[in-house]
Write a structure and sequence with these properties.
The protein has one domain (10-113). It is built from no helices and 18 strands. It has strands spanning 10-12, 17-19, 22-24, 28-30, 33-35, 38-40, 44-46, 51-53, 56-58, 61-63, 66-68, 71-73, 77-79, 84-86, 89-91, 94-96, 101-103, 106-108.
Length: 127
């Protein structure tokens, strides 16, 4: 999964909270707190201080922060040391580093043929 990263076009900073869906046409770096789904045509990076309470749909997804929701990663998912994911994963490649945390179900397959059902409405795990 060591491919040269794309230039990041959109950044949500640490001091930012977003409530609602985010759609990006390119790579996206999330350092803030997101309550809603994230859709990106490029790579999605959840920074060490980033929190996503919702589903992520993207190319390659890298999680160094926290995600409470499902992830559909079309070009691989990496959960970095200190990263935490709780939810269903659909991807073609998965890397979980030592020191990362994952709780949920994993589907390794062609993500273009898979679907993710949104989780039942629950209160966010990370606040």
């Amino acid at each position: 999964m060591n491919k040269r990263p794309e230039a990041i076009n959109s950044i949500i900073g640490e001091a930012t909270t977003v409530k609602g869906e985010i759609a990006a046409r390119g790579p996206l770096h999330l350092n803030g707190e997101i309550f809603g789904n994230v859709r990106a045509e490029g790579e999605v990076y959840v920074g060490e201080r980033g929190t996503v309470n919702g589903n992520i749909f993207g190319g390659k997804v890298v999680v160094s922060g926290r995600v409470a929701g499902n992830i559909l990663a079309q070009q691989g998912l990496e959960i970095a040391k200190g990263g935490r994911v709780e939810g269903e994963i659909v991807t073609d490649k998965l890397l979980i580093e030592a020191g990362a945390s994952y709780l949920g179900k994993v589907n390794i397959c062609n993500p273009e043929e898979a679907t993710l059902e949104p989780p039942a409405e629950t209160s966010p795990s990370y606040v």
